[in-house]
From TrEMBL:
PANTHER family: CARBAMOYL DEHYDRATASE HYPE (PTHR30303:SF0), HYDROGENASE ISOENZYMES FORMATION PROTEIN HYPE (PTHR30303). Gene3D superfamilies: PurM-like C-terminal domain (3.90.650.10), PurM-like, N-terminal domain (3.30.1330.10). GO terms for biological process: protein maturation. InterPro entries: HypE (IPR011854), PurM-like_C_dom (IPR010918), PurM-like_C_sf (IPR036676), PurM-like_N (IPR016188), PurM-like_N_sf (IPR036921). NCBIfam families: hypE (TIGR02124). Signal peptide: none annotated. Residues 160-311 form the PurM-like C-terminal domain. It comes from Pseudodesulfovibrio senegalensis. Residues 38-146 form the PurM-like N-terminal domain. This is Hydrogenase expression/formation protein HypE. It comes from the Bacteria.
Amino acid sequence: MSEKVLLDYGSGGRASQRLVSELFLGQLGNDELNRLNDAAELQVSGRIAMSTDSFTVDPIFFPGGDIGSLAVHGTINDVAMMGAIPRYMTCGYIIEEGFAMDDLERIVTSMGKAAKKAGVSVVSGDTKVVPKGAVDKIFINTTGVGDIIVDPAPAGDRARPGDAILLSGTMGDHGLAILGTREGLEFEAAVQSDSAGLNHLLVKLVQELPEVHVLRDPTRGGLATTMNEIAGSSNVCCELNETDIPVRPEVSGGCSFLGLDPLYLANEGKFLCILPEEHAEKALEIMRADELGRDACRVGTVTDTNPGKVVMVTQLGGKRLLNMLEGEQLPRIC
């Protein structure tokens, strides 16, 4: 193959076949994908969860990950938030003519490693190459499918007054890592994306505690926006304690310097868990036993005082509304 991605690689002819067989099947291949049918034959049982997403992150390589691993993590996490075991993925690549083949190989290799670690098979895919300037480097579209293993499944409209609100770790890491890399900023301490596959931890959590009401990953719009979505869907008030929300010192310092609020920055390896009060300590024990949940903590309580609102109890003991993000704080974050 050439050093650059050519339009020929999206033609469907011999060049396309070489790209698929030498790169994609080499890194993502499995019994089903290797058949190269027009669609995949899948084995699923009962209720399934399915999610689709598109990844346009800029830059495509960043501290803690790249667009390839991010595409896998983002997809399987969305499926797992439904109390499901992710089983299969599809991926479609839209690649700019002239894109470096070494970079494409690096991205696909990263996807393969992330999928293998998650125990997910990439069973179908598509590649399009567009003229230079028609797309910025590379965009990736994915779909994920998994078996729901609890009934009822966790959902954004199931939060109830009295529930505990738990958080698996620190806020704002991914958003600040992307911004810092994009703008060439140097912080006093290195800031890395938290991009990670959460499915193994989430499956263990719902298997041991099927009483979990809500699981959500606070990606675009961050914690504040996600909490507002849950409060609105469940018609409850989510009351958060500012002093309990974990933010790394380097992220807090970077946000202060840039005038950003870490509660509105995207996260790609953290999740919210809302469940009955009596199960909160057990949930924290399960989360903290996993590397991806070692900083898990309780950050609030669901109430019925201001339905549809998110209330922040400040460090001084006062209260203020925590609104949903207005506009786009940081575009192309995932």
